[in-house]
Amino acid sequence: MRLPLLWRLLAILSLLTLGLIVMVSINFIITNPLIIPLVLALSFSSLCGAWIIFIGLKKRLLLGWLIMLGSLATLIVILIFSSNNSDNSIVIRLGFLICIYAFLVSWLREKYWSLRRESSLRQKSKSSFKNPYLIINPKSGDGRAIKANIPARAKKLGIKVVVTKKSDNITQLAQNALKNGADVLGVSGGDGTIGAVATVAIEHNLPLVVLPGGTRCHFARDTGLDPKKIVDSLACFNGVEVRIDVGSINGRIFLNNASLGLYADIINNDQYREHKIATTRSTLQKLFEEQKQYSLSFDDDKGTRIKRVVQVLIGVNAYKTMNVFELGHRTSLTGQTLQVTAITQLTRTLLTSFMKTIALNKDFIANNAESIRQWETQSIKINAPTKSIVVGVDGEREEYATPVTIKVLPGALRLMTLPEGLRQRPKNIFSADAIKTVWLAFIGKDV
User: Fold this and answer.
1) Closest among 316, 291, 315, 317 to 371, alpha carbons compared
2) Which of 189, 253, 353, 399 has its CA 20 to 30 A from that of 66?
3) pLDDT tens per residue across span 300-343
4) For residue 139, what is the DSSP state?
5) How far separated are the first and last CA of the chain, in Å rounded?
6) Distance (Å, rounded) from C-alpha 148 to C-alpha 62?
7) Choices 3.30.530.20, 3.90.79.10, 3.40.50.10330, 3.40.50.1000: CATH for 125-238
8) Could you give phi then psi for residue 401, rounded to 5 degrees?
9) pLDDT per residue as tens digits for the range 364-389
């Protein structure tokens, strides 16, 4: 794909703007050598205080409030009395440059994918699907699909639309579409709804189209879809097919991750749906008070038997767990592996270490090997002393007979992506990867 000259000129403008940001930042640090460390330290202290308030028992609540309010008050005083007109001018210029850089990088990204789409559509005829179906959960994402008039827009494209009702069985609706001759299944809803339709698509080797109509849209975002542009995702019906991996837990298909231990305990609470924050807080308080662990046993990648844990998270392919700006993003949907993250003990010291290492971009897992392990595998079998256990699967509460066997199914799902192909989630614009991408754009290479 040939990149236009304007695109390359804007790429170098982005790099020049980044250079100015670095220069202005260095100038500010040189003229204010103490302010930056103090601001960072007090901000970190405020977060620690807020965390103590959230998970602390009554005797620790006062300490948390004192730390948080004291840190914030000190921070405000420093910012007010240590600044002068020159400093304020530098901060304003820095903010302005960051806004320009963010706009340019965002524009370049959208322009690049637009060029990719134009190139792809020139080489491809109209969709070969003769009987496409789209199942829409109208309540998901605060009714995003309905507000965007997706049913009417889809019908204009020749897509048969099924809008679900509260009592409907999603799997049955997908099977009914098959009986009516569907040659591609589309779905708009949360990850649970998407997973149900994906299971039917896999069983019958049909392609799947996903619209980002859920609340958080974890899976849709990982495929490059933007919930704010849900209408644009209809282009997937005339897109590019990519085979991606899915997970299987005791034979049940899932798309993102399965969680055992603490998170499963939280969502197993009857109050969770209506009072998420309060339920999470009370569960964490109990865990810290009792130093609770869950009797889940399994082997790690070295064959060592782990018998008690606080939390186990099994993701389909690798998740970014240490980058605060890209937390929870997947690096690939085709890595053909499971990522297992096991926390064997959860203490306040560990959480403090976690916050510090993220702030300093250090390897948290390597520095806390006694408390947390992470590895990749093709399958894992987890035992428990009970006949069944609750598991959080793609954010939903489910119960499974033990032992629980989780596997990766490489390339099991035929996913229809946008015409330009499978997008990655937007990166942190100041990351090395993002800067490298802008540089490649400047020298004219297809990124």
Assistant:
1) 291
2) 353
3) 888 889 998 988 999 999 987 655 555 667 878 999 999 999 98
4) T
5) 10
6) 47
7) 3.40.50.10330
8) -70, 145
9) 565 566 678 889 999 999 999 999 99
Burial of 178 (0-12, 13-18, 19+ CB in 10 A): middle
pLDDT band of residue 47 (cuts 50, 70, 90) is confident
Which element (helix H / strand E) includes 163? strand 160-163
d(CA 396, CA 217): 14
Q: What is the pTM of this model?
A: 0.79
- Model pLDDT for residues 409-446, shown as the tens digit of each residue: 999 999 999 887 777 777 777 777 778 778 877 776 66
At CA 376, angle to CA 372 and CA 380, rounded to 5?
Answer: 90
105/445: higher pLDDT: 105
- The answer to whether the Cα torsion of 163, 191, 218, 206 is positive or negative is negative
The CATH architecture assigned to 254-408 reads Sandwich (2.60)
Question: How far, in Å, CA of 245 to CA of 408, rounded?
Answer: 7
| Alpha-carbon gap, residue 374 to 341, rounded angstroms | 4
